[in-house]
Amino acid sequence: MVTPEAVRLDFEEATVGSRGVAIVVDWMIQSMVLLVASLAGGLLVGAGVGLPPWVGFTLVTLLGFLVIFGYPIGFETLMRGRTPGKMIMGLRVVTVEGAPVSMRHASIRAALVLVDFILTSGFAGVLTALLSNRSQRIGDHLAGTVVVRERTGAGSTTAVEFTVPEGFGGYAETLDPAGMRSDDYQTVRAFLLRAPTLAPARRADLGQRLARGVARRISHQLPPQVHPEAFLRCVAARYQERGRPAPSVQTSYKTPAPPAPVPRRSDLPQGVDEPSAPEPATHPQAGGGFTAPG
User: Fold this and answer.
1) Residue 162: closest CA among 63, 258, 233, 254
2) How buried is 226 (Cβ within 10 angstroms: 0-12 exposed, 13-18 middle, 19+ buried)?
3) Mean pLDDT in the chain?
4) Do the Cβ atoms of 27 and 86 come closer than 8 Å?
């Protein structure tokens, strides 16, 4: 999704299965509320408090309407696109631009529950969600909303450092990953981490295709004697090296040693005179430099 401010937002759309479980949870809660309301209305009418039967019937009908339609509208508006069922499944309703839903969006989605589920026994909602690229039912299409997944069962992303395979150090130095994009590296990373769990034939096919694509990206001719996975590991290691900040260069200076102290007379051994200062050099006199003999 791209917001009006040209900011790209990446979401994972909820599947039909997870949405179905969330709907079942919400319907169970609504059914319990309706059951309690019906029992309370029946007890109220049968208690003989002087109310006509139609009053109790009207109250139960009004409460049923509020539970069926007010439940999703109220929760999705006040809880920013979530109901108790969606909270349990880690889902949220957002607009197609990625913004929070308003009461208008929630009201349209709740009104189309009649078509998606009640009148068609859920057939229309499931069919349109399966045929939609974003798993949108009719209510989502008309409201301009989509149900996204806020959390998944996958583990949290951990840092992985790829190393050049043994014996490929010289070959890795010839690879320049400057042409790789972040998406390319993420694809290579995902394949290398999942490769041990793939079937051999599937692993070889994916590795070959991915290696060819990455080689074209970095303008490199893949040698036939280099295994595709070895090439991908070399590229991943070089990409990580290229992304690391350069180490700061620190210049060290040696402090000059202090001059040796001139020994004092008291420090000299007996019989050794203190060195005298050197005599100034004599310079010839100007004007010929002749000195009369003594």
Assistant:
1) 233
2) middle
3) 78
4) no
Strand intervals (E) in the chain? 12-13, 91-95, 145-149
CB 93 within 8 A of CB 135: no
- Angle CA 116–119–120, to nearest 5: 60
In angstroms, what CA-CA distances link 152 with 12, 116, 187, 292?
A: 9, 26, 19, 111
Q: What is the pTM of this model?
A: 0.52
Rounded CA gap, 112 and 144, in Å? Answer: 13
The pLDDT score that the predictor gives to residue 98 is 77
Find the length of the chain: 294
Task: Give SS3 for 228.
Answer: helix
pLDDT, tens digit (0-9, with 9 covering 90-100), for 205-217: 999 999 999 999 9
* CB of 149 closer than 8 Å to CB of 116: no
